[in-house]
Design a protein that fits this description.
Blueprint (H helix, E strand, L loop, with lengths): L3 H28 L2 H10 L2 H36 L5 H18 L4 H16 L8
């Protein structure tokens, strides 16, 4: 397997994006969960309940959207980095993914830090020589 370090960073970030998607789905599930809603009604005021449900909805979306974008493009980057010809394109793609998804949600900065590291390594690293 070529480009082992970059692929390890990409795999770490793909796992991070899956965790982001899972967290967003939990937030959206809690918004509609009857046990959670009854807990909120029993312990909090109406304005606190409305605020909490609104924040859960927004947080769910802000976790799921960049997670899906990062997941799909990360798997594409792993696939493209297998061949040694497109490493500059993949490096720039990884940098654009990490910066672009941070514009969608600041929460995406945590797992996409690994995309940035992998992109810089791909741009700066020397191409591997393929033995004949």
């Amino acid at each position: 397997m070529k480009r082992m370090v970059e692929n390890v960073f990409n795999i770490i970030d793909v796992v991070g994006n899956v965790l982001m998607i899972g967290t967003g789905l939990v937030f959206l599930f809690l918004k509609n969960n009857d046990a959670f809603l009854s807990y909120l009604d029993a312990n909090w005021t109406k304005s606190q309940n409305d605020y909490t449900l609104d924040e859960l909805s927004q947080a769910g979306t802000m976790f799921i959207l960049p997670g899906i974008i990062g997941l799909v493009l990360g798997i594409l980057a792993i696939y493209l980095s297998k061949n040694n010809r497109d490493r500059k394109i993949v490096g720039w793609m990884l940098l654009v993914i990490s910066v672009g998804s941070c514009f969608v949600s600041l929460f995406a900065a945590i797992p996409n830090l690994f995309y940035m590291i992998a992109g810089i390594i791909m741009l700066v690293g020397n191409p591997k020589k393929i033995r004949a």
